[in-house]
Give the backbone structure.
Amino acid sequence: MRAEAVRSGLKRVPGLARVWRGLRAAHQRWQSWKSPGAARKRTAAYWGGEATARPGDYSVHPSFWLTSNEVLRDYVFPRFGGVDWYTYVHQRYCPAPRKLGLSLCCGNGHVERILLWRKIVAACEGVDLSPECIAACRQEAQTAGLTGLRYRVADVERMRLPRNRYDLVVGWMALHHLQNLPRVFAQVRRSLTRDGILLVNEYVGPARFRIPQSQVDLMNEWLARLPDQLKRELSGEVRQRAVPLNLEDLVAHDPSEAICSNQILPLIRREFEVVEEIPYGGALLQLLLGGIIQNFDPGNREHCHWLQKLYAAEREAMERGELDSDFAFVIARARRSA
């Protein structure tokens, strides 16, 4: 009741709600800095719960825009010559299996399993903060009969990696959960073999998803055009407006979510030799389709037509410079001294 009264009072005073949100965000950051151990425990518990609930799934977010095969096939993969990410890496960078890989913040382990199945690596190590995640990874590897996978519990932001050990280091939808990125990249750089590569597939947009109002306006413009049947959320409610994610709720579930995502690309460009960088959008589609993508039936011509319209809207906004790409696929090598 007290929280509801505060929210009601804030709505009656113009501008006060924004100040309150700013103060709450600052408090969250202070608490995270003051007691990083507590934040890490909440993060580990959150992802451990997800891995335990669905240990075999490729994604713990069934309504995430990139879980849609249609979005991948028709919008993302054309940027990779029409093949999926793993085929692209295999053909261009790993025609023969690399000896040893490392997966940072491995989660439920699906990335490492695919790396072995596709013969991108001969063996791979996975590290994660969550003991539950590591247990799920080991179980899935055993079930799949993959003997080339090794897992351990470790804090990626604090661990020290051995020098010249890995031929491939992977950050797959994981680096945006890390705060001390300079240290992580320094460790990755020293751990790569002479011909080793860093593979990154990440959300690289605004930290904590604090997107500009113009981006929200564009989402609402398209949301208003969509028929109600396509806007029904998992709760059953029809989404009427797109709003930025609530920082308080975001941090309460996972204190690490998108904490320093906007630093990923600048740091990679500074610390590594970028071989290839492929931006593939998401500034409009991620938050607009998140939670409703499951409504788009690939066998329904009207639904597919709406998806094509949304693809075109994001592409055109990016071409006009109105939107940046919030997701990127990067291949990089460690910089070598002359």
Notes: The domain at 36-334 is CATH 3.40.50.150 (Rossmann fold).
